[in-house]
């Protein structure tokens, strides 16, 4: 079945694409939404423009749709992007990296129903710690590009998701109820390498901005 992957460049959408391919889906294209609203309810924002490099590493066409990021209205832009994928690449399914967000999942499902497309969420309701361990087992190299919750601060930017990271986030969950996989919006991530990539991406430069417990790292990759 031909599919499009809603792709943010982060761990969940990349892992969902990997699992979908393992299950026999043919990935025809990626869809990335670039929101002008850094507090978008729907879309990942740190280093989103670097999805172009990831698409190149996967040798996949990429549909980029810009949006103002206004709540609910941004869904019109998402629908237009999915329509383009259906018309241009004849997709039959849309793959998402949704894990726990009913808000996001219900809205994507509504669009897919309208366009007569399947919506597949391979990570839905997956245990958060298990998800992080699975990323490691499958050779995903991922770094944090944004943190948005106490006690996370700018020292977490650029951290790689590895065994030590999992141990640290488990402790933060016990003490502060920080979601280990960032499902509460506590952090954002960027995939530098995974089994779908022909080569590993390298960070050439980075710019950090923010204050208190809200920090972003914009990266340049090659």
Task: Describe the protein in words.
The chain contains 6 helices and 9 strands, in the order E-H-E-H-E-H-E-H-E-H-E-H-E-E-E. The model has no long low-confidence stretch (mean pLDDT 95). Helix 3 packs across helix 4. The chain has 2 domains: 119 residues, Rossmann fold; 92 residues, putative n-type atp pyrophosphatase, domain 2, CATH 3.90.1490. The longest helix is centred in the middle third of the chain and has 16 residues. The chain is globular, with a radius of gyration of 16 Å.
How would you state the average pLDDT, rounded?
A: 95
- Structural class by sheet pairing and helices: alpha/beta
H-E order: EHEHEHEHEHEHEEE
CATH class value of the largest domain: Alpha Beta
How many DSSP H or I helices? 6
Q: The CATH topology of the largest domain is what?
A: Rossmann fold
* CATH architecture annotation name of the largest domain: 3-Layer(aba) Sandwich
- Calculate the terminal CA-CA distance, rounded to whole Å: 32 Å
Q: Strand arrangement, largest sheet? A: 3-2-1-4-5
Strand content: 25-35%
Number of strands: 9
Write a brief structural summary:
This protein is α/β, with parallel strands linked by helices and 222 residues long. It is 33% helix and 26% strand. The protein has helices at 11-22, 51-58, 74-89, 102-114, 128-137, 163-176; strands at 2-6, 26-35, 62-67, 93-95, 118-120, 141-147, 187-193, 203-211, 214-221.
